[in-house]
Amino acid sequence: MISATGIGFSYGSRPILSGVDLAAPHGQVLGLVGPNGSGKTTLLRTLHHSLVPRTGSVLIDGDALRGLSAREIARRVAVVVQESPGDLPLLVSDMVLLGRTPHRSVFARATDADDAVAAEALDRVGALHLADKPFDGLSGGERQRVLIARALAQESTHLLLDEPTNHLDVRYQHEVLDLVRDLAVNAHHTVVVVLHDLNLAAAYCDQVLLLQSGKVVARGAPDVVLTAENLEPVYEVDVRRIPLDDGFQLAFRPRRPRTQGARSTPHAAPTRSA
Ligand SMILES: Nc1ncnc2c1ncn2[C@@H]1O[C@H](COP(=O)(O)OP(=O)(O)OP(=O)(O)O)[C@@H](O)[C@H]1O
């Protein structure tokens, strides 16, 4: 369980987050959504103290992060962020072994037990066959799986992900989020995920926190938060919610009149020719 109360953060004198409360229980996926620059990544980073909030506190299973060392935090919280190709070429197996770092002393080599945990993590994400390949040579979807494997090898029960579906095609988007959801539901991890795609948030999150200018404007089940009433003023677009058998799909169109010659808007109702 991750809980945060009264989180405030500033870059220099510029306030970015203020008074943010958050609760992410075990076995659930909490989605952080909001427009560009609304503070999602900053909030995620305060949840594992890669940024220390100016006000408020973050608790992991009831223990304040302020009282934990970086190593203790890393044993409890794994983070998956966009990874740019590194200067140091690493094999996939070595990349996953980095997840074992919080469990061994600084200069110790990986043990057979570490290798076994890393291999199991790769197997879990269906990427064991990639173990001997260079990480930088993988596709975006493969890379994302390996980064999740590294997080699994860390054996933390809390997982924070920043836009894990970025650059992925629709199939990989669903595969990655299926995997993340499985970790929450079947392995009882606490998952907090930043997502831009509101339809993916609706499909995979138990709870959603909608941020605007560093403040929470709505929280709760996707059905309650992802409404036209909440989203239109925040994103400044028109929103239509289309009911589906197992949920809903959101469609968006700009509020401004479209440029002359633009194609018909995505959620305009189809017209019949006479
Ligand atoms: N290192 C930094 N120094 C100064 N300002 C920053 C820094 N990182 C982010 N910001 C600013 O903080 C605000 C919130 O950024 P953040 O990345 O948390 O938003 P976000 O909701 O994740 O955005 P996006 O959806 O575009 O990724 C933005 O205005 C951004 O410009």
Automatic annotation (TrEMBL):
Gene3D superfamilies: P-loop containing nucleotide triphosphate hydrolases
GO molecular function, one term: ATP hydrolysis activity
Classification via InterPro entries: AAA+_ATPase, ABC_transporter-like_ATP-bd, ABC_transporter-like_CS, P-loop_NTPase
Domain (ABC transporter) ranges: 2-238
SUPFAM superfamilies: P-loop containing nucleoside triphosphate hydrolases
Region ranges (Disordered): 253-274
Xref: Pfam families: ABC_tran
Sorted UniProt keywords: ATP-binding, Nucleotide-binding, Transport
PROSITE patterns: ABC_TRANSPORTER_1, ABC_TRANSPORTER_2
Record protein name field: ABC transporter ATP-binding protein
Phylogenetic classification of the source organism: Bacteria, Bacillati, Actinomycetota, Actinomycetes, Propionibacteriales
